[in-house]
């Protein structure tokens, strides 16, 4: 199962007649139930779905994603105006049991979990 979920929407109609827009349809409105041939035609302008701009938005499916926190990215020299200095902590290890405030700090470096690199498996 993929950790990414695609959300597809269709926008403005780009069908033209003699170089001019056929109509000024702004959004694709399916003309029938999903899975039927009518669903491929816009009820607003009558054009096929291929004449409408396609927008694909990818989101992480949080119902199946497993989160792992990696190396610490906190810049320990930021408050002194120096260059970037990392502490070398390679992986987040919770300092307490899940659900407690201590679970949000790393037992290796003491930083908050938000400073560690987040990866979705």
Automatic annotation (TrEMBL):
Pfam families: ZF-HD_dimer. InterPro entries: ZF_HD_homeobox_Cys/His_dimer. It comes from the Eukaryota. Keywords: Metal-binding, Zinc, Zinc-finger. Residues 69-119 form the ZF-HD dimerization-type domain. NCBIfam families: ZF_HD_prot_N. This is Zinc-finger homeodomain protein 8-like. The lineage of its organism: Eukaryota, Viridiplantae, Streptophyta, Embryophyta, Tracheophyta.
